[in-house]
Amino acid sequence: MATSVQNLIKERKYPFIWGLSLTIFLISAIVFLLFANTSPSPLSVFTDLQQRPVRSSEPPTNDLVERQDTGNANGRDGDKQSDVTDVPGVNDVDLELELEWRLCKGSMSVDYIPCLDNMKAIKELKSRRHMEHRERHCPKPSPRCLVPLPEGYKVPVPWPKSRDMIWYSNVPHPKLVEYKKDQNWVRKSGDYFVFPGGGTQFKDGVKNYIDFIEKTLPNIEWGKHARVILDVGCGVASFGGYLLDKNVITMSFAPKDEHEAQIQFALERGIPATLSVIGTQRLTFPDNAYDLIHCARCRVHWDGDGGKPLWELNRIMRPGGYFVWSATPVYRSDERDRNVWKSMETLTKSICWKVVTKTIDSSGIGLVIYQKPVSPSCYEKRKDNIPPLCLEKDEQNSSWYCFRTRHLYIQFILLRLLFFFAVEQGGDPLPV
């Protein structure tokens, strides 16, 4: 390009050069004006964030507050308040965008989640057999109200102190304290909830349980081989909270159930968590995302519906990854638990998972660790094509209608290349 410009100058084609420069300038000006007209004003967005919701006791509503000449931003009669307060220099500006939102009202608004508490959609479900009522069903049109904070909400306790204690007023749910008092999940102490590190399977505390897993299978090596994990049915997420000490990032999830939205405790503690359920929809995680998946009495029927819940775990677990299952069928021998164990044996063999280890600790709690294969050869040797392997056209629905293995071929080839590269360089092969 530089050579072309020099030639133009040598040939004294100045009109062409000036015309090209003017054209570039005009195009830049037009793009700038279009962007300025379509982009929201940073000031207007900032003022929207400054509007503070006020708690109300009326039923939830999705309506917007009608515009009032008095500038009432919270929609309560007789309460005259400026749209923007305590913001230097903002009240003097003539704002073009002033949205006034109505609060979602009612005592249940603290826990109200429009896509999960959409009772109209839930009542219209034809079946609840696969946990459809625990899945998201977002209302249409989308809600146009703000969910109020609990009365007396305070700035959360900062991390890492928040892992062990949070303000009671921020998550005012005493029911879980009573319901799980024998398992030491959470206790109320004055103005705080405190989390001693107990749990259904953590008889000797969550720290000992985490060490027990690593001693059972040293190759897990928290923070080195297992760095990104998923905790299914997490409770108040103490497992994920204490794994942070091991340089492990844990995504915890559980449904919104009768235990008063345990995920709220996890989020207030500063632990990554989300409300979700393994039902009929794929989890919102990509393929091969997790090094390890953990379930401690998570009450998921892995063998249900032909094993589709476990197929979904297979989709999001990387080849060579581990599934740690700590549940009564692993270490109890009553008839029900024996039947579940036999079903899991059949199911895991059908998807080529192998049992790496199975053990019971001193407190009587047991676990089994499965490993997902890195090679597709096992699937090719199966006598029965159950579960059926996915075709390319079925892949977007994989784990609910078929079993996806195509990524194993790619992973297998990459691992073989890394193996040969390490050997050629005189080093050790990378661990699976």
Automatic annotation (TrEMBL):
Its main location: membrane. CDD domains: AdoMet_MTases. One of its GO terms (molecular function) is methyltransferase activity. The keyword rRNA processing does not apply. Coiled coil: none annotated. It is a single-pass type II membrane protein. Keywords: Glycoprotein, Membrane, Methyltransferase, Signal-anchor, Transferase, Transmembrane, Transmembrane helix. The chain crosses the membrane at residues 16-36. Residues 51-60 have a biased composition (Polar residues). Its EC number is 2.1.1.-. One of its GO terms (cellular component) is trans-Golgi network. It comes from the Eukaryota. One of its GO terms (biological process) is methylation. Residues 51-88 are annotated as: Disordered. It is found in: Endomembrane system; Membrane. Belongs to the methyltransferase superfamily. This is Methyltransferase. It comes from Tripterygium wilfordii.
